[in-house]
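Supplementary notes for students who missed Thursday's class. We covered one full example, reproduced here. Read the sequence, then the structure, then the short commentary at the end.
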Amino acid sequence: MSVRLRFAPSPTGALHIGSVRTILYNYLFAQQRQGTLILRIEDTDQDRLVAGAIDSIYDGLHWVGITWNEGPHEGGPHAPYVQSERLPLYQRHAQELVDKGAAYYCFCSKERLAVLRAEQEARHELTRYDRHCRNIPPDEAAARAAAEPHVVRLKVPDEGVLSIEDLVHGHVEWQANTIEDQVILKSDGFPTYHLAVVVDDHVMGITHIMRGEEWVASVPKHLLIYRAFGWDVPPMAHFPSVLGPDGKRLSKRHGSTAVSQFRDDGYLPEALINYVALIGWSPGTEDEIFSMDDLVQVWKIEQVQSAGGKWDKARLDYFNGVWIRKLSVDELVRRLEPFVPAEWDRAVLTRIAPHIQERMKTLKDAQELIRFLFTDDIGYDKSLLIPKKGDRVTTLEALARARAVLGEIEPFVSTNIEPALVGLATALGWSKGDLNGVIRMAITGPRQGEEPHADGKGAGASRGRSRLMALARRIGLGLASRGKVSDCVAWAERARAAGLESVWFHDSYFERDAVTYASAVASHVDEIAIGLGALNPFTRHPVLIAMTISALDEMAQSRIRLGLGSALPLRLGQMGIPYSPDDAATRTTATIDTLHQLWKGERLPPGKQGLPPLQPMFPPVHRVPIYIAGYRSPMMVVAGQKGDGYLARPAESIPGLLKLLRVMDRAARAAGRDPDAIDVAGYLLTFIDGTRRDALNRAKRDPFVIYMMSILSDVTLKRAGFEPENRDRIAAKWRAEDYTGAGALIADELLDAYILCGTRREVAERTHAYHEAGMDLPLLQPVVQEEAQVQALLEAAVLYGSAEVGSAARVALEAQHKTLAQRTRDQIGAFWEIARPFSFTASTVPVAAGGALAAVAGAFDPSLFLATLVGAVALHVGTNVTNEIYDVRKGVDTIVSPRASHAIVKGRISDSAAYRFAIFAFGVAVLMGLILTASRGWPIVALGIVGLIGGYTYTAPPFQYKFGPVGIPLVFLLMGPLMVIGSFYAVSGLFDFRAVAASIPVGLLVAAILHGNEWRDISEDARAGAKTFSVQAGRAAAHWLYVALVVGAYLALSGAVVFGLLPTWTLLAMLSLPLLVRQIRSSELGATGQQRAIAMIDLETAQLHAAFGYLLVVGLVIAALLAR
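Structure (token representation):
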């Protein structure tokens, strides 16, 4: 006889370790005897069901590699295999027991049973049913059962012994008088577990019952039911419980026991099966590593222990490590895929996998072991880099020199790296161990990863070098000399704590003195460098500058940086100072020479004849780097010839910076200097908000931004590719104090060229784009100098310190140089994306149906059909684009919204450009309407007006009916009757009830597309304040409405054919029924809370609509051809 076993979980939670062991032992027993294993879902306890639990059971069993022969999805001779679908079977068997006198009807109310229990407890008696209804005459009981609520109870004998020979525990027996009259059928018609399990095991031919020992207490009740039916009792085995470390049954209090959690934590199914098999079973040898095939060969039920086995997580870790090491490299890489980011290079992962395989306990460990090879955000406190005997300055110097040394090694292999680092350690006066430790920490982070001496052919050579570059990367804080001095001191301290290299005070005329702010920082903040600039040599005498810097130098202990350069011609003119670019270069050059003389303690020649030379009375200063500020070529020449650095002023674009640096480089080479030795710094104005769009909008309302845009020079604008005319219009609005109008004239592209607007990460990315263009020391300066903006700026600066932002920054830099053709292609792609062409079937199907009906009526006009089709698609495009715009504005669509185009959210197309595109599409629809009106008259005007208003106000004010409960019926009317009847009239000039009949199923399916979208997005819509039908009625009602819409379409078509309104050939649309069945099944899963089942419901319903609709059209065309 072939054995038949079953695993019968209840869907009351996730599949857990104990259940895995139970089905494993059943599986092994069946496999050894070429038997059958059945999966049966026991869901009779409806109050304890958990949504998604059945899927969890299936997923878990498939993951551990256990298969079965019959089940809910697999089918079989005893289907269905879900108990709630087998209720008539249990009800018949319960009635059979009543009829035999082995069971009886019980009419006791819940209230009576509660009183009975309370009385028994008060008397300290065993709580059990008192058999109050047991002796009601059968005829009376049957009559009452027909009218009163009741349950069915098992009639347990008063005496006797019940026993089994358990395959694990041996002989077990119970006294019948200890068992109460158990309920076997509840008042709602559902059986209890005891009746259902016995009936199913018998009907399904189960030959061996193997389950957990928690069911031992139920065995006598089951024996009584077997006896009452006269059935043989199959052999039983009750496996001991899996215990926690404390000796109690393993449960959630011992940590997660869900199989899915072990899978997600990186355990291999082979390891879990291996370890679980050994909990309560011993092979009798010292062997402990078993595959599933091995277990089939060696496992014996006779070796299963009767005492519970303890769960030991450390043992599972051990087994998992063993099984990880047994994997081939290719298989290991495949298994690692869910645990590492998709963007990680699989070739690199394959090369590094053998190096970490021995060290992994779980697959999840891999990300921490090797993430340093793939990302620059390794998340540690940079203070950890500093060795015990070192400091911040010497460590940064060591990293910078290591970066230079490693950058020159070719090939990048250990035999070349080792001697280079030994030489560097000697030059620095460091031990080899300290240097290697710093480099290892810099590259891998706190957790040990690949050795820094590993071959560069291996993973991470370029990543390691780039990370050293990131750690040596410098960034500063720029502040205007305004506001409270104490605030600026506090911000400087926070900048130091965040790891910024310097804080610079921009010399803002008609505000406050930059030197005073710098002095305060020098007095109160250690370590951070302090920059001044640019100080203006036209307004500050070089002797005064020398005296000031001498004092500051003492206070700051060699941390001063000096910027020199002229102010804008406008400012100098307001101060009555004549100016020309050549004068500025000459004056700056002379100032530098004077400063160098005075700081060396040299005398200056007399200014007038007969006066003694000027002798400085202050001590020589330490070396103070001088940065030349300017935005015209003469000042760039000075920077190349004499400057220690160049200081880009606020509002310099990347193209402008590149052009200026080329001038400086030429001047430096002509003077015999190395251009790379000139430090390039620059103020970068920032405006940070939650989104780039919000930041841009706020910037356009800021008076300083508007003012700055109004005074940009012609040279600055043209270098960035802008014409001055718009600047002049902005300036005119500014002078008229029309700030709103001025802000409206500032294009996003203009702001982007001069101000870093966006989120913290976006600002960090843009900063890196300047770095890639040649800026060594970006100085982030908030447009609005307030606490929130400064804090956000500092956070962006910290992000900039991560090389992770580099790749996106390079993309941003490359975007600056895109050709016109490339930008045009990008724009066309963005327009195509927000038009959402996948949805065009919602308009082309109704128009095609109307045209086909016109052919059936013998009145088809091809030119009018084409105009109708173009007009309908244009109207649809305008509606879709307007929908995108207002979904973003309302917050319904975000960067993480499913099925959203994201073109507007990501800034690939501006809000205003999208709006213009929508107006253009509506314009095309109007033009087609005028063409049709010329042939068909005023009804087309009426239809067009309704269509335009309906399409535009779908999401746009004032109606925005998409966000309310009327959206579904209005979409039904607009995309069903209006389009089909309107198209039929436009093409034929006729009105016919056949068009009405065809429009109803088409409209119902379009409404189902919208409703499916609303149902899926119910959470997002609710958060955004939308009042859709789904939000207001709830998920259950949303499910039934969806089913009604899609099924209603098929019923409407069938009815139209039956009543002769549509030709029989239109029943071709019924060929799409498999898609309907798919959608109904998906919706049922969605109704149980399985959200992933309806993740693509709008697209899938659109496919159903297209298949149904085009088959309907084909049927109409066939009917038209046959009617000729």
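Commentary. Residues 690-758 form one domain. Residues 862-890 form the longest helix (29 residues). If anything here is unclear, bring it to office hours.
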